[in-house]
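ok posting inputs for the coenzyme A job
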Amino acid sequence: MYELCPETPDDTPEVEALYDLCFAPGRTALSSYRLRDGVPPVAGLCMILRNDGVLTAAIRYWPVRAGGRRALLLGPVAVHPTAQGEGLGAYLMQQSLARAQADGWERVMLVGDAPYYSRFGFARLDRVEMPPPTNPDRVLGLELRPGAWVDVAGPVTREPAPDAAPTPRAPCAPADPGAGATKGPER
Ligand SMILES: CC(C)(COP(=O)(O)OP(=O)(O)OC[C@H]1O[C@@H](n2cnc3c(N)ncnc32)[C@H](O)[C@@H]1OP(=O)(O)O)[C@@H](O)C(=O)NCCC(=O)NCCS
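and the output
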């Protein structure tokens, strides 16, 4: 049975091990990690899926500024290799993006494969610049409020003033990853 839970500090070693397993060595050398250094993640949006207690998938979000505007940086998201292709990644994307929208976030960005993330509504951000070296084709955005990316241009920088009172974590809940269709949040 799957359970969707917020990531807590107790989960962190397991989540880091999952990321190490799923990504190439040296993942923390990527420029996107420099935007995360010393900045707390958005605790209410960092979620994990456990299957009978075993950590199977995880997603995290950080606050950043894009062209000076508040935005979410989605990632990393990873699913254990033995469970990939079963809809768990899509489920975590849908659940966390819906929560982000409900929490009032207006825009989300990530660095990733457009062929995967386009199914959730992500599209290339032509005027938003990630720190080099980043392939501009992999800089993607999603509007949680219509038009939220329209006037945004410029470099992505660290959030200078993370929320002092982060949104609370939701309690764990039974999850049915196979039930949902792949789509983005309601807009
Ligand atoms: C990418 C990842 C999170 C997707 O989660 P998942 O649970 O395996 O994927 P889902 O079951 O939700 O979706 C499966 C679909 O996504 C496609 N897909 C998976 N990874 C993809 C990628 N990198 N590019 C394009 N399509 C991809 C699959 O081909 C499949 O397509 P289909 O629906 O047409 O058959 C997971 O495969 C993973 O952890 N990969 C290793 C880490 C990683 O690459 N993370 C993302 C960095 S961009």
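notes: Residues 61 and 110 are 9 Å apart (CA to CA). The chain is about 20% helix and 30% strand.
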